[in-house]
Amino acid sequence: MKSQNIFVYTILAIGIFSIPSLLDNVQAQTNSTNQTSAQNQTSGQNQTSGQNQTSGQNQTMSKDTQALMTTDLPELKDTLMTAKEALANGNTEDALTQITDVENQLLLLKTQPSFGKDIQKIKDSLSKKDNIKALDDLTKVQSDVLKAETEMLKAQLANPMLSQQKNAQDQDDEDDKDDGGGDDNN
Predict the structure, then answer these.
(1) Which one of 30, 65, 166, 170 is most buried, counting C-beta atoms within 10 A?
(2) What does the alpha-carbon distance between residue 149 and residue 33 come to, in Å, rounded to a whole number?
(3) Is the pTM of this model over 0.70?
């Protein structure tokens, strides 16, 4: 019986002395696993976002953003602001001209933005002499354009290649304007 007690106490002593080293090993393995999984998640996210950015950045963008990527956004925003100022000053004829210019720009786009219908609402409000409603609708359109522009800028930050493509497209547009818009070799 005495030898059994010594054997049990020896096993307990060995177990008690080995617990700290066992805990250190478990903690080291846990930290290693956490770091590995964090790296895998990060690289997985990078690969996924990289695939999204290269294979179909437009698929993750809203319809409005996709539509406005092919238009001259600063000119569109300026035209909207000019229309709003004219409307605020009571010059409905000039405001209607500016709104029609915006509508024409939007009609030339392949993909129609969702706020294209609001342009017609603005024109209807102007025909009814309801300048306040026209101003409200115009402000909503400006807000939608700004949201789309913000989404576009976020996409360009996430994917620098998109920004380079946009800059190249803008440069091509400027070159076309400089030489009259055609590639005449005469």
Answers:
(1) 65
(2) 41
(3) no
Q: Six-digit token pair at 132?
A: 């306040």
Q: Give the integer Cα–Cα distance in Å for 65 and 18.
A: 62
Rounded to whole angstroms, the Cα distance separating 53 from 60 reads 9
Q: 150-158: long-range contacts at Cβ-Cβ below 8 A with a sequence spacing of 24 or more?
A: 151/61, 151/62, 151/65, 152/61, 152/65, 152/68, 152/69, 152/73, 155/53, 155/57, 155/60, 155/61, 155/65, 158/49, 158/53
* 166/59 Cα distance (integer angstroms): 17
CA-CA distance, 52 to 32, in Å (whole number)? Answer: 30
Helix/strand/coil for 185: coil
Q: Is pLDDT above 90 for 78?
A: yes
Other beta carbons less than 10 A from residue 168's beta carbon = 10
